[in-house]
Amino acid sequence: xxxxxxxxxxxxxxxxxxxxxxxxxxxxxxxxxxxxxxxxxxxxxxxxxxxxxxxxxxxxxxxxxxxxxxxxxxxxxxxxxxxxxxxxxxxxxxxxxxxxxxxxxxxxxxxxxxxxxxxxxxxxxxxxxxxxxxxxxxxxxxxxxxxxxxxxxxxxxxxxxxxxxxxxxxxxxxxxxxxxxxxxxxxxxxxxxxxxxxxxxxxxxxxxxxxxxxxxxxxxxxxxxxxxxxxxxxxxxxxxxxxxxxxxxxxxxxxxxxxxxxxxxxxxxxxxxxxxxxxxxxxxxxxxxxxxxxxxxxxxxxxxxxxxxxxxxxxxxxxxxxxxxxxxxxxxxxxxxxxxxxxxxxxxxxxxxxxxxxxxxxxxxxxxxxxxxxxxxxxx
Length: 380
Fold this sequence. Notes:
Layout: E1 2-6, H1 14-18, H2 30-38, E2 48-50, E3 52-57, E4 60-65, E5 67-70, H3 81-89, E6 97-100, E7 113-114, H4 124-138, E8 142-146, H5 150-158, E9 162-172, H6 179-183, H7 188-203, E10 206-212, H8 218-236, H9 244-253, E11 258-265, E12 273-281, E13 285-293, H10 300-315, E14 320-322, E15 336-346, H11 352-375
Parallel strand pairs: 6-8, 13-14
Antiparallel strand pairs: 1-3, 2-5, 3-4, 4-7, 5-6, 8-15, 9-14, 9-15, 10-11, 11-12, 12-13
């Protein structure tokens, strides 16, 4: 078994890489990683240098891990800034580090990609050994696996790669035929509140267009990027992690996985998109990813990003709606707490015990938080 690292997704044939990918998860596909790289969103300059792991036997690709050398912790959504600060205060470098993750995408899914007839248990030991050796060769402080599925996280934990818990909120389709079927599962007060919120958006004069595939035009992409950039500028003072080229290229290379929901106002002299949300989807899951607006309107974000997403999921018999990281406001809207995982190997024996203790204490808090959130769900 031979393990190599490549510094560009284009150094492996797309067909060979995609043969390892499950059919129903878009973010690990060669096309998605290539769009990030080709648009300049992942590069050494942005602190996301590609460093993908490949596993071969007799020159046949058997497994792979999308990976990056990181010089900061932005865009990961598993927060280790406190660890980096502790290193800094004691005069050590936390960066660079290596992460097995999908950039800017906190969506749980496969992180070790294997041929269909090859279980991850066959290669996991070799992968762990290779990552540890690669970290030593390159002076990485650590390596991390972010948002893996539960099977891989458990396998890593069995090999003393510390497991860290997180919590997100996902919506689940319980066989609903209409949005009203979903509301019928709620207690009266919460049901009335959602109806009131949706009515308020309608009374402000908004209607919504659901665009998929080729229905999303170049003009739509230009408009969406303008909305996305405007929202980031107002919120954080920068233009966002993703470029106009990213969205345009994504639209041409992965159109079958895309849904854009556009909010238009009835009283404008010409049709104008005031806000929009961009989702990716596969057969079973809708992933809420990006949002932008030109002006703030009361409850417009909830309607565009959540209620319209639920409408689409119900109409298309999608079983799960992953609305993105964090967000306690989702609880009252029927999104349920879900535990997520990450795994972490720390090189330094001086810092490792303290980080392991932090992870253990945090896990108790995360479990308690998830239980409290579940008790607040609006269902009968």
